Amino acid sequence: MRRLTILLSTIFLSYLILIKSVSAIPDIPELQSDQLDIIFFNVPHGEASLIKNNRGEHILVNTASKRSQKTLYQQLSKLQVDQIDTIIITNQSEEYTGNLLYFLEHYQVNNIIIPNHMNESFSEDLNVNKWTMDSEVELWEDLYIQTLDQTKDGDISFLMGYGKQSILFLNDKDIAIEQKLINQTVNVDILKVAAFGSGHSPSQEFLEHIDPYMSIIFPSQTHKINESLIERLNATWIDVYFLKQSGTVFVRLSKDDYEILTENSSVS
């Protein structure tokens, strides 16, 4: 009887965690024609972000780990997303590509951007592009991505810009990349931290150079957070969003400003 009670308690706790993850998606006001939403998903393991406009178009940046598939599907369903125009892959490891085939099969994807080292076979109907260094690609009107760096393993760091707003997707956890990025970037509004906050980058010098207002750290079941990195972020007065704690984070972008729409925007 005691074992049964413990088992039922464990199942109930897992259910609560799942419900919390899905219900963490707040009711979002309707998008205006000059606005975009970027959504950083809280999933059990890995990275996945969604960009959406008022025309019902969607861009997915990475697909998280396969163990996050159910949670990701539920969050997308609540957002009424059943079609994705473009998938952007920045890292070929499972934490970023685990659900790639699932999305290609179920979400009518038209375009995909992948690292040069990635040698997957895709349908002939899919428009496949590989990252080109130091290039700028316009995804939608006034929304562009600028490729900044690629590691020897194929990890891509890029800058996303919309009007005056910019988001740095940092995907190299070592500080060696930073000198190159300092020459390519100035102020950044939002920083997506590399490697689930487990690395040494961003350094103090780099943080002071890009001067972001907020940073995003995706959850991982395998990477240990570098506490000295978190101390640097906090000491620089940057709001730190651990998605495992804050839940899914919505950022509404206009061309001149942004607003954070999330269930718990005070976690840092």
UniProtKB/TrEMBL annotation:
Keyword set, alphabetical order: Hydrolase
Keyword Hydrolase: yes
The keyword Transit peptide appears for this protein: no
MF terms (GO), sorted A to Z: hydrolase activity
Residue ranges that the Swiss-Prot or TrEMBL entry lists as coiled coil: none
Top-level lineage group: Bacteria
Protein's name according to its UniProt entry: Metal-dependent hydrolase, beta-lactamase superfamily II
